[in-house]
Design brief:
Pfam families: ABC_tran. This protein has 23 helices and ten strands. Strand 4 and strand 5 form a beta hairpin.
């Protein structure tokens, strides 16, 4: 068994799958180190599989014929690179510091590059596992898999169990058949007679071989049928739970970390099933061999144990040493992966060449690679010593056992046929011990991650949005926020304090204020995403009937609201899907998709793409295109309009638009309000608030003042007027004229309002 910690080298082969590092690949090299930093900064996390590769747009491209590596554009640069390379080669031979951190890591990362992610939660757990703990954990791990399999496909699970039990029986029958063949061959009498007498046992042995092959194939078919079902069931259970968690709960770091950790266990259920099948096959085979040996002669069972135990000890020790080394140096490997990915990223190409950044990265790569090669040599030497010790003890045990076997044979206490059967059983049983230890190691780690998933589901259920509640009035005409306060988890200062706001349909309500004043938080309160710590949020009907948001059916609340958040997601899907996701609870209506796109002034752009609405709006895929920030903002606006909700909350909807497009966007919002939609506008562009029906000015979580644009501008020393005049001064104006945003125009495209039940 050999582990590899070299830079970019393959990981240990998974015993269950035969694929390099399949059981842990997503937690190491292809973990965050392989992500594009721009996407990481935007908060795009790994997928449900727990293993997000580098996006297609940033995958390294092999250099073409005749291409030159970075940093070799000139003779001067060549000489510098060679000199620096010689220096780094010398440094690579130097040992790392006492903490195992190389000089390159300190220079580039300030120390060890360890990801603050939930996927590293259990690193090192297997290294602390003792042999007795491993043996005791095996039945519990198999029980977890059996329960998951029984819940998804009992028939397939029964097929796997029957096949495994059958293979154990065929192993036993095979040893009995071997004993019969040997007994016939070693009996007294003519050779022809002995051969004829051995025919029944040979036929039985052939049937046993066929039966084992059939049962192995049946087990493969049933486990192959069961594995994806188990993964799907666990994944759906997890993701359905986490998508129902209250938004405020996800703001708590301890809860978010638990929920994030659960993501990596969804695939563990599948791997545990595969590993369990392999481990149970080995265990059942060994038990069957032990039972047969004990039935032939009581002394044969201790012989089997005496030979097997040293091999098991060696396998466990080697596995733990390799695992410990791999986990210790995985941080170096992540650092290496981070360095290498920059060398081929298009957005870094300029600095790689112009600033000679490639030379710095290559020096770091060379130094860290040298250290990891040194560690690989150390690990190989230590593993060789362990193998020698284990082989020596096992050899001594074998010598003693075969000596006892010889004594039994020569003294007449054991027939020769039984002795031959014992040798076959001992050799076949001990040969698979290393595989068993590797599988149990993997199973234990996967069990911890599957436990994280179960804990995440339990935690999510305790913080879930209620599935029931009172229906909203039909239709809702106004949202009233009364004396509302809200503090984010872990914060000492309230984001909102005793806030009163009214939002009515057919009007534009603007929320303005400095950064951190509470505007976006108030918008989330209005949309039902956050519940206030104190105070009330009333959804009011035409006759004054009202329902408080805590008592309301939240599904009705969400159906009544369309949102365009400041950091809305850019889905890596088609343009049509990016709009239709605004109403993901309804079948896609392409006519309404196009109508919403026209209202957001993005239809012409999308329809002009080579693949139109089927274009994937992310460069790097087939049919992929790259949209600008302003184009994305228009597409996000179309998404919020497609929902057709009577209340529309837009947070900085024009931050990426050019001046003309910005004026048109605010114009469209005004027209929407005139059609009966309640528009809540969160913005820093105070010129746009001139046409708002009511303006609320927030200051450090309080409503500092509110009123119309004209009324607020008439207050000397008022906060709104001060901000407005400050923006006007940037353009050399004393003040923007009232009505800087054009009045509503006739004939504007307004998407039809989709029926939303109680809110209409």
């Amino acid at each position: 068994m050999s582990g590899t910690v070299g830079a970019g080298g393959p990981e240990p082969t998974s015993a269950a799958s035969g694929e390099p590092g399949r059981a842990s690949r997503h937690r190491e090299d292809s973990a965050p180190g392989a992500r594009d930093p721009k996407r990481t900064a935007r908060g795009r996390k790994r997928t449900a599989q727990g293993s997000e590769p580098t996006p297609p747009g940033f995958q390294p491209t092999p250099p073409g014929p005749g291409s030159t590596p970075p940093g070799s554009e000139s003779t001067d640069q060549d000489s510098k690179t060679m000199a620096q390379g010689s220096e780094s080669t010398a440094r690579a031979s130097e040992p790392a510091g006492e903490d195992g951190v190389s000089a390159a890591e300190r220079e580039l990362f300030g120390g060890r590059l360890r990801w603050d992610d939930a996927f590293v939660e259990h690193e090192g757990s297997v290294a602390r596992l003792r042999f007795g703990q491993m043996a005791a954990a095996l039945p519990r791990m198999m029980g977890v898999v059996l329960r998951a399999g029984w819940e998804t496909d009992p028939r397939a699970l029964a097929g796997v169990v029957v096949a495994q039990a059958g293979q154990g029986l065929t192993t036993a029958f095979g040893l009995v058949a071997i004993n019969g063949v040997l007994g016939s061959l070693f009996a007294n009498g003519p050779t022809d007679d002995k051969l004829r007498e051995s025919v029944p046992a040979l036929v039985l042995l052939a049937l046993v071989s066929v039966g084992m092959a059939v049962l192995a194939a049946w087990s493969t078919a049933m486990s192959g049928r069961l594995e994806p079902q188990v993964e799907r069931a666990v994944s759906l259970r997890y993701y359905r739970a986490v998508t129902r968690v209250e938004v405020a709960a996800t703001e708590k770091p301890e809860i978010q970390r638990h929920l994030e950790a659960g993501k990596f266990g969804t695939e563990s259920a599948r791997r545990m099933l595969s590993l369990s099948v392999g481990a149970s096959n080995v265990v059942i085979g060994m038990v069957a061999a032990a039972v047969v040996l004990a039935s032939l002669h009581w002394a044969l069972l201790p012989m089997l144990l005496a030979i097997a135990l040293p091999k098991a000890w060696g396998a466990v020790r080697s596995a733990r040493r390799e695992y410990t080394s791999r986990r210790h140096w995985v941080d170096h490997r992540r650092a290496v992966a981070t360095l290498l990915q920059y060398l081929t990223m298009p957005h870094a190409a300029g600095e790689i060449r112009a600033h000679a950044a490639g030379s710095l990265l290559l020096r770091g790569y060379e130094e860290m690679s040298g250290l990891m090669e040194t560690e690989q040599r150390r690990l190989a030497r230590a593993q060789a010593r362990t193998d020698l010790v284990a082989a020596a003890f096992s050899g001594l045990a074998s010598l003693g056992c075969y000596g006892v076997l010889w004594w039994l044979l020569t003294s007449g206490g054991l027939p020769i046929a039984v002795g031959g059967t014992a040798v076959v059983a001992i050799r076949t049983s001990t040969a698979r011990l290393t595989s068993l230890v590797q599988q149990v190691n993997r199973m234990y780690e996967e069990m911890l991650r599957l436990g994280d998933t179960e804990e995440a589901v339990r935690l999510a259920a305790g913080h879930a949005i209620p599935a029931t509640g009172r229906p909203l009035p039909s239709p809702v005409r106004e949202i009233q926020v009364r004396d509302v306060s809200f503090t984010y988890p872990g914060a000492t200062v309230p984001a909102l304090h005793r806030v009163d706001v009214s939002v009515r349909r057919g009007a534009v309500t603007a929320l303005v204020g400095a950064n951190g004043s509470g505007k976006s938080t108030l918008a989330k309160i209005l949309g039902g995403l956050l519940l206030p710590d104190s105070g009330d949020v009333w959804w009011v009907g035409p006759e004054g009937e009202r329902v408080e948001v805590r008592e309301a059916a939240r599904a009705d609340v969400f159906r009544s609201v369309g949102m365009l958040t400041q950091d809305f997601p850019n889905w890596q899907m088609t343009a049509a899907a990016n709009v239709a996701v605004g109403a993901g609870d309804r079948p896609r209506d392409m006519a309404r998709v196009r109508e919403a796109a026209r209202a957001a002034d993005v239809a012409e752009l999308i329809e002009g793409l080579p693949h139109g609405w089927d274009s994937i709006v992310f460069k790097g895929y087939e049919r992929g295109v790259q949209l600008s920030g302003g184009q994305w903002q228009k597409l996000g606006t179309a998404r919020s309009l497609y929902r057709g909700a009577p209340f529309l909350l837009v947070d900085e909807p024009t931050s990426a638009l050019d001046p003309h497009a910005e004026i048109e966007a605010f114009d469209r919002l005004r027209t929407l309000a005139d059609s009966g939609v309640a528009v809540v506008l969160v913005t820093h562009r105070l010129a746009a608030t001139a046409s708002a029906d009511h303006i609320y000015v927030l200051d450090r979580g309080h409503i500092a003042e509110h009123g119309t644009h004209e009324g607020l501008m008439g207050r000397d020393g008022g906060l709104y007027r001060g901000m407005f005049d400050a923006q006007a001064a940037q353009y050399g104006l004393t003040s923007f004229p009232v009505g800087a945003v054009p009045a509503p125009r006739s004939g504007m495209a307004v998407p039809p309002q989709q029926g939303t039940g109680a809110a209409d």
